[in-house]
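Researcher: I need the complex structure. Ligand is fe (ii) ion. Inputs:
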Amino acid sequence: MRPSASRSRPSTEERSLQSRERELVRQYDDLVRAYEATIEGWVRALDLRDGQTEGHSRRVADLTVRLAEAAGICGAQLGHLRRGALLHDVGKMGLPDGILLKPGPLTVEEQAVMQRHPEYAFQMLRHIDYLRPALDIPYSHHERWDGLGYPRGLKGDEIPLAARLFAVVDVWDALRNDRSYRGALPAGQVVDEIRAGSGSQFDPAAVRAFLALLEREPELVER
Ligand SMILES: [Fe+2]
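Model: Output:
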């Protein structure tokens, strides 16, 4: 049976509505792409300033998303978390070169300046509507489960979940890759370090979820 003319041919009004809808979707996609390109630009700018973090931001963003999925985080939260992980050290842009690029160990005073970078990230990002939900990691990634971290000295569940998951991934990636002052450590040694930090530096549930992820996906260890 042939469809009726009214069903097969949309009216001028319907065509105009459909075209407007397509245009809105296109504009939305353009906007999302522009946001993502801006974030990529900031990450590259930080990589340029601090050669040691080359590739680190992207790797920890990928792995934090996988860990978050395993921990049951889903939907829009994953996008916020990925942006937060990419921008975790964006506050370091506010540090002077003499401290950010210092080859030797930092003095106590210099450490205090270095430890301001989460606060700088908070000040940079909190005025940007679409990045405000991504602030958990940049602002809280140096908090510790035992309350001895910075900048706010949050303890246990007071620390946002995204930051608790990220903290484990950040240490894993840092120790598994070369730094100017040491080579990459073997996976077994890094796992031992992370286990040793469970309940003091790290959320024990985040450590369990991370180690289970490594067990399920051995290619993460081989990288
Ligand atoms: Fe940091």
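Model: Summary of the prediction. The CA atoms of residues 136 and 161 lie 8 Å apart.
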